[in-house]
Amino acid sequence: MSAGKAEFLAWIEGLARVYAENRERLTELDSAIGDADHGANMHRGMQAALDKLPGVADKDIGTILKTVGMTLVSTVGGAGGPLYGTLFMQMGTAAAGKMELTLADWTAALEAGVNGVVMRGKANLGDKTMVDALTPALAALKAASGESLAQALRRSEQAADKGKLDTIPLVAKKGRASYLGERSAGHQDPGATSSHLLLKAAADTWATG
Questions:
Q1: Using N-to-C axis directions, what is the helix angle for 38-56 and 190-205, rounded to 10°?
Q2: Is the pLDDT of residue 209 over 60?
Q3: What is the spatial distance between Cα 199 and Cα 158, in angstroms, rounded to a whole number?
């Protein structure tokens, strides 16, 4: 099983809806340990990305992902723009020229994206960032040999969900939240939450494949 261009376009559209629906929740999480703007920023960025989709609807998946990434960089404030922009642009580079992605292709693309985020943000697992959701999600994909793309995506999303929840007791070591020191413990990281939502949107979009 593979995911074609139509599925990727549907994923981006679905992700925009998900961020719109979770805008207040992300802002609530960010208000506790950040600037209280993560929900608004991700919503604005994905709405801008939606506006760009018609211009790349006939292009390959790599181009679509890169366009989303560049749009996020230019429209999302704070650290979210560079980090999510890097995630999508590196995924796009890995998927360059492809009109459909197999499970192996998707895994390689996500790995490229996660590596880009780690390099850009200088964050590691346990630092209370989006990496805490993305890293276990990637590991779950790599362990999903023999499963369908839909099954692997669901397993990956569930790993990201656990990773998101695992940020609650952590003390933040990166970003604005790190300024709070020990007071950042007890709060769920908004970046890990939005990363889980991204992967859940993919799993939900391709669940019937």
A1: 40
A2: no
A3: 9
Tens of pLDDT, residues 66-104? 999 999 999 987 788 999 999 999 999 999 999 999 999
- One-letter amino acid of 154: R
Candidates 27, 29, 32; CA nearest to 43 is 27
Give me the amino acid identity at 51: D
Q: Which domains, from first to last, does the chain contain?
A: 2-205 (1.25.40.340)
Of 191, 200, 203, the closest CA to residue 86 belongs to: 191
pTM, two decimal places: 0.94
Percentages (nearest 5) of helix, strand, coil residues in the chain: 70, 5, 25
23-33 helix and 5-21 helix, angle to the nearest 10 degrees = 60
DSSP structure string for 79-93: THHHHHHHHHHHHHH
- Give CA–CA dist 168/141, Å, rounded: 24
Alpha carbons 170 and 145: distance in angstroms, whole number: 31
Write the pLDDT tens digit of every residue in 57-70. 999 999 999 999 99
Residue range 123-136: average pLDDT? Answer: 95
